[in-house]
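JOB MANIFEST
job_type = single_chain_structure
chain_count = 1
residues = 284
[input]
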Amino acid sequence: MILIADGGSTKADWIALDANKEEVFRVRTLGLNPAVIQEEELKNRIINMFQLISVKDAVEEIHFYGAGCGTPKPVQILKDVLASIFTNAKVLVSEDMLAAVYAVASNKPAIVCILGTGSNSCYFDGENVHMKTASLGYTLMDEASGNYFGKRLLRDFYYEKMPPLIAQSFQSEFDLEIDTVKFNLYKQANPNMYLAGFAKFMFAYKEEPYIKKLIKKGFVKFFKYRILPFQKPSDTPIYFIGSIAFYFRDILEKVAAKYGLKITDVIQRPIDNLVAFHKERINQ
């Protein structure tokens, strides 16, 4: 059996393939970002999923692509966790950017972007992935991500920069008691996931001028720091993966047009395309 997983900070999608490369099951666990989640919690999030534990001895390979897996230390942490559970498996851990490339670009040059809980981008030349700059994560970077917008919504609310009716709805949807917010930001695990939780508020109000302006400004920053620096021809395919890009595609396309660029496609979750890629490789 082979397990293929696409893991973000908020959630991780898993698909199991049998010896005939047929899908056995698919499940979703909580996020498994080893850069921000403690080792014990990573392990708990896996062993608490019955479908995964029920096949742990039958799994021979794990292909895990995840947020926070771009540097050696967190990769090793996650590999050790997976190897301790799936004791008969060969464990391969790669960053989520590679999963995005496999899911959309096949073997053709393209700029591939992620806009989910976090954000990132790369240029794929058809063989190798090129990163313009390392990501320093949710605190300093992650432009136009869920946690980026969550920060701005919270800040606008407390600075009273939100339109009153939107602020009233925001307050009714979330517990915004100051000690609760600070506890989640500074005392709990996954502050990036907590912040991204506020971004879902934007989906219901996407036609409001305030929300449109907020999203547009975030997308402009993403293009400025994460796409334009590659300095590729305007006809280079550009792909986006993630819920933020998926639900606000219309605004994303308008920002792209401002720079003379065109979005080739937007995919909410790459797991199905990723499995198809692996099936093709296995069958070669």
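[summary]
The first strand starts at residue 2 and ends at 7.
The longest helix spans residues 209-227.
exit_status = 0
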